[in-house]
Design brief:
By secondary structure, the protein is mostly helical. It has helices spanning 2-5, 15-28, 33-45, 53-65, 70-77, 85-96, 102-113, 122-133, 136-148, 155-167, 171-179, 186-198, 202-214, 221-234, 237-250, 256-268, 272-281, 287-299, 303-315, 322-335, 338-350, 358-370, 374-383, 390-403, 406-419, 424-436, 440-453, 483-499, 515-523, 526-537, 554-566; strands at 461-466, 469-474, 544-548, 571-574, 579-583, 586-587. It comes from Nicotiana sylvestris (Wood tobacco).
Amino acid sequence: MNDMQSHNISGESTKPYILKKCIALLLSCASSTYKFKQVHAFSIRRGIPLSSPEMGKYLIFSLVSLSGPMRYAQKIFYQIQFPNIFTWNTMIRGYAESENPYPAIEIHNEMCVNSVAPDTHTYPFVLKAIAKVIDVREGEKVHCVTIRNGFESLVFVQNSLVHFYGAIGQAENAHKVFEEMSDKNLVAWNSVINGYALNSRPNETLTLYRRMAFEGVKPDGFTLVSLLTASAELGALALGRRAHVFMLKVGLDKNLHAANALLDLYAKCGNVKEAEQIFDELEEDSVVSWTSLIVGLAVNGFGERALELFKEMERKGFVPTEITFVGVLYACSHCGLVDKGFAYFERMQKEFGIKPKIEHYGCMVDLLGRAGLVEKAYKYITDMPLQPNAVIWRTLLGACSIHGHLALAEMTRNHLKLLEPKHSGDYVLLSNLYAAERRWSDVHKLRRTMLKEGVKKVPGHSLVELGNRVHEFVMGDRTHPKTEAIYAMLAEMTRLLRLEGYVPHTSNVLADIEEEEKETALAYHSEKIAIAFMLISTPPGTSIRIVKNLRVCADCHLAIKLISKVYDREIVVRDRSRFHHFNNGSCSCKDYW
C-alpha cells in the first residue's frame, strides 16, 4: 500500500483525482483478489462513496474479472445510485459464468422492471445463464424480447440463441436460427453442430460439418470435439481418424478436451489399442482421461485391464469421481467379479464419500444378473434406498431372459408396466422367454396387447462405415445397390458355417412356424447382412466394425464367432449393451451377453 499511502490528499476537490487513482489501481489488479480488497478499502477510507456509479462500475467489473464472490459484487451493486447498463451487464455476466446462474435471470428481470434499456451485450449473458439452468420458457421469452427490441439480427445475440436452443435439446430451433443468420461465423457453426451432437443426432452433425468444410470455414477444437462425439456414436472410425490427422496437423492434439474426445472415439469404436496410445501420449492427463479409458476398457470387455488401470490411477494420486466408479463397477459386472464389485461399491462410499446414484445401483443389479443371481438381484432392488427406475427393472428383465427365469420376469414386467407401459423392448424380452418355453399362446397374447396399446417394436438396424459413408441395414434389407451380391455372400456364409458345425439358434424366433422358416428369418438379421456387405467390399483380413441399435441375439452371436474364424476377420460389434470382439471363433464377452 506504499503507493496509496504516498498520496496524502484530502478534501472534496481531490476526490476526482482519488477516484481516477482508484480506478487505475482496480484495473491493475487483474490477478489478485487481495489487491482488489486493498483498493476497495483505500477508496472507502478516502471518502469515495459506494453510491458513485463510476466507482461501483469498476469495483464490480474488477471483481467479476477475478471470478470473485458474487455476493460481494451484489452488495456493492445495490449501493450504487442509478447503475448504468455496463454495470447491469457485468452483474448478469458474473452470475451467468458462476456455479449459480439463477440470479443472472433475476437481475435481468429487475433491469426490465426498472426500465433500463438493454444493449448488444445484455442478451448473450442472459441467454448463457438460461441455457445453463435449461429454462425453456424464460429463454423463449427473452427470444421474443430480442425481436421486439430489434436485437435479433445482431450476431452476438444470434450466436447465443443458437447455443441456447441446442443446450435445451431443441436442435431444430437452433438450426432454424442458424439458417436465418447472414453472418455465420465459427462460433455459430460450432453452436449448431454441438447442438446436434449433444442431442444424439450424429447424422445431422456430420452433414453440417461437411457443409462447413465446403463453405471454407476452418474448424477449431470445439468443432472437432462435436465431430468426434458424432463419429463415436455412429462408429465412424475412418471419419474420426481423419479428424485425428487434422488435429495433429494444426496442433490440436495437445488440447486436453479434444484429446479426451479422441480417446473416447477410439474406445467407442472398439479400437482399444489406439485409445490406450492416445492416453499414453497425453502430455497432461486428468481424472477425465483416466475415467474415459477405464470406462472404454470395461465396455469393450477388458475388465481386468480396466481394474488394473484404476489401481494405477490411485497410485498416481488421482481421486476417482462417481463416473469413474461407474466404469469400475461395469468392469466387475462384465467379468463376473461379484465380490470385487461389492467391495468397490463399499469403498466408493466409505473411502471416497461418494453417495451412490441410480447408475451405480444399476451396475450392481447388472453385476448380480449377469452372474445368474437373479433372485438376489430382485431382493437388492427391493432393498435399494432409491426408487428403482425403469432401467433398473429392465436390467433385471434382461437377466431373467438370458437365464430363463420366467416367473421372476413376469413379476419384473409388472413393475415396468407402471413406469413405462409402452416400451417395446420389455415385450420382446418377455416374448423371448415365452418362445423359449414354446408358450406360443402367450407370445400371441403379448403381440395382441402391443397392437391394442399401439406399441411398435423398434426395428433393429446395423451400421457399417465404408468409403466416407455410413451404410445402414435392417432385417431382410434389399434396398442396397449391391443387394444381389450381398445375398449371394449370405448364402455362401451359411454354407461354410454349416460345415463348421453351425446349427441355427431358433428358440427365440417369436413365431410358431416351421424350423426351416425360422432358420431363414435368422439368416437375414441386419448384422449378418452388414457383415456380408463388408466381406464383398473389403480386402481379406480387414477388420469389420458394426454398430447395432439392439442387443445381438444368441444366434447372431454364435454365427459371428464362426464367421470370424472361417473368414479370418476381426469383427467388432457394438450393440445396445456392450462390445463384442470376435476373433478366431471366440468373443471377448465370454458369452456373458
